[in-house]
Amino acid sequence: MNTGRLFVYLYYILVNMFVYDVINTLLVIILLFNTALLLPILRNVKNNIQTFVYAVNILTILLWIVTMIGYRSETLYFDTWLRALYATAIFIGVTYMHFTFFYPVYFNAARYYMYVVNGLAFITAYLVTLTNTVIVRGVKTPYGEPEIIFGPLFPLYITVIIIPFIVFYRFACMPFAKYSTG
Length: 182
Prior knowledge:
The protein is mostly helical. It has helices at 3-17, 22-43, 49-73, 78-101, 104-130, 154-180, and strands at 135-140, 146-150. The protein has a two-stranded antiparallel ribbon. Helix 5 runs antiparallel to helix 6 (154-180). 23% of the residues are buried.
C-alpha cells in the first residue's frame, strides 16, 4: 500500500466516523502529524529491531488517539470505545518499555521481566475489554459528561500502566543521574 492511499483511507475513516469539536479536531491533526512522522521510520523497520519496536510504540499511540476520538464522539457505543481506550493505554507503556530494553546492556537481563509484564498487560487488557472486573460500565450522562464505574481490579490496571514507566526511569534515567550528582 502506498503512502497516498494510506492517507486517503485514514481521511475517509476520520471524516465519516466521528463527531468533531475543537478537541477532536486537534486530535486528528496530531494523528495525521504523527502518522507523517512515522512514515520515514517505517522505511528502516526491516533493518533494525529497535526501529521496529519504536514503530510499534508509535502505532500504539496512534491507535490510542483514534480510540480517544471515538470515546469523545460516540454515545451509542461509548462503553466499547471506553474499554478500547483503556486497553490501548496499557500497551503504550509496555511497548515503550520494550524500546528501553533493546539496548544491549539491559536486554538479556530484562527478558524474563518483559515476559511477565507482557503477560500482565494481555491479561489486564482482556479484563478491561471482556469482563466487568476493571471497568463495570461507562455511559455518557444527559449533559454529555462521561460516567465511568470502575470494578474491583482497577488497581491492577493502574499498576500495569505505571510499572513500564518506573522500569524506564530505573534503566534509562538512573545511569545518567549518578554522573550528574557530582
